[in-house]
Design brief:
It is globular, with a radius of gyration of 23 Å. The chain folds into two domains: 229 residues, Aspartate Aminotransferase, domain 2; 121 residues, Alpha-Beta Complex (Aspartate Aminotransferase, domain 1), CATH 3.90.1150. 41% of the residues lie in helices and 13% in strands. The chain is of the alpha/beta class. Helix 8 links the parallel strand 4 and strand 5. A seven-stranded mixed β-sheet has the order 1-7-6-5-4-2-3, with helices on both faces. Strands 8-9-11-10 form a four-stranded antiparallel β-sheet. The relative contact order is 0.14. The structure holds pyridoxal-5'-phosphate. Pyridoxal-5'-phosphate binds next to helix 5.
Length: 448
Amino acid sequence: MINATELTLLKKALDKLAEGYRGLPDFSSEFDAEAVAEVLQQVATRMHDNFPYFHPQYAGQMLKPPHPIARIAYALSLWVNPNNHALDGGRASSAMEKECVVELGEMFGWDGPLGHLTGGGTMANLEALWVAGRLHPGKRVVASDQAHYTHSRISDVLGLPFSPVAVGSDGRMDLDALEALLRAGNVGTVVATIGNTGLGAVDPLPDLIALQSKYDFRIHADAAYGGYFVLAGRLHDNTRAAFDSLAAADSIVIDPHKHGLQPYGCGCILFKDPSVGQLYKHESPFTYFSSAELHLGEISLECSRPGASAVALWATQRLLPLVRDGEFAAMLDDCLYAARDFWQRLQESKHFVPLMQPELDIVVYAVDAPNSREASERARAVFAQAAERDLHLAMIELPVQLVQGHAPGITANSETITCLRSVLMKPEHRDWLDRIVEILELSAVEIA
Ligand SMILES: *Cc1c(COP(=O)(O)O)cnc(C)c1O
């Protein structure tokens, strides 16, 4: 779990950091090392009560370990603890944040968007819908019913009406259902989920863009989970087309703390048109302005923000540039490969019925049974049995019709059905599939 080299690298970087402050009179904070050590032992013990998120046998929820460079750079910055609210709080880390944001924009084909890091995808989506609401006051926000639940909740916070749009059996937004809503009028914003959190399905963005010629609405792309796959080489054609159209959206959210190898606390909002920055205008009574330049606190709803997140992301983007055909893109392709291979193996299994073919790296599968109630019970039993064998999965509750589109053998005697879900977001999953499938099959036999 721990690679000692990381600690050596951190110490070396800390020594370099200290050089920058050598001119100051000597000062270091004193603390009772013994007392601290004792509490830290308690902390480490308490932390045993976690699933092993960092390990390839954790193949459940959307959790991915940060890259060592992100972990080290984040820790390093804590000895200065910059605040990216304003330049006075963190000059270096604010500059790093701006550079990261430019590169994230370029990844989607944008030249100089307005944007900044946020605490996560929720805050980033809040800003996107807040701007959308300022530009289309009182108008409806719509998103697929597989979109992240945050959109309906944020719309509620902002006082904007919200409507869900049905999805097809592929998990993507249904265009007829969307057009019916658009025809009814008063839709200000359509949220396109570019990789939904449950199924990994990608909404048909090119079709949404085509609808803009008939109806007047903004497009917000929620690519919190899926955004980085724009760099992948192995996408299927429809999926590729959606990613290639991202530049035509009005705003994009991406979470570096999902697929971007960052510690939690790192989302990002990007606006294509930088002039929306005016909407953030405020009069700060306690002047932070040590420079005439627009600072990040003026274009963010959050005030204090961790400079550490920007430092970690900057370091990661230096080491693993956001380019197609690069090392980072290859890691994403490994995840795509793992998901497709896993889907194929489940297809061949006697015990499992995989649902839609994965567009990204999420695989959802039912446990075969005569009816939906029994399938749900079996899914919960396999989940528990696999956990006994140190294989950690996730569960998802889906409308029974959606599942029957893929598993017609399971008759419906309930409205929803519990399925298993694995987010194969570690490149190592590719090499661990034999073992993962073996444990799954054993677990299915065990519960039969
Ligand atoms: C994770 C996720 C969110 C919420 O982001 P947080 O970083 O958890 O706040 C929103 N939308 C999508 C598509 C997501 O996957």
